Amino acid sequence: MKTAHWIRKTHLFGADGYVCSACGAKAERPHRFCPVCGAPMSGSRYRASWVDEAEGLSALLDDDW
Ligand SMILES: [Zn+2]
Fold first, then answer.
1. 28 CA to centre of ligand 1 in angstroms
2. How far is the CA of 20 from the centre of ligand 1 (A)?
3. How far apart are CA 10 and CA 36, in angstroms?
4. Total structural domains in the chain?
5. Do residues 6 and 27 lie in contact, with contact meaning Cβ atoms separated by under 8 Å?
6. What does pTM read for this prediction?
7. With left for phi above 0 and alpha for psi between -120 and 50, is residue 11 left, alpha or beta?
8. 31 CA distance to ligand 1 centroid (A)?
9. pLDDT in tens, 6-36
């Protein structure tokens, strides 16, 4: 399976977004895998920030419950 990375696009499609370098699929967020072709994304910076955000959210939910 080939790897790919997200290409950040700003104001090209009306809003910030990311484009898969392998298949050209557009996504609102830099997912860990492309939702269309399934290629694992190698953009460690985007992935790290996405994980941090998700962990912070689950921590808040844990406090509420
Ligand atoms: Zn793709």
1. 13
2. 5
3. 21
4. 1
5. yes
6. 0.57
7. left
8. 10
9. 988 876 556 778 999 999 999 988 889 999 9
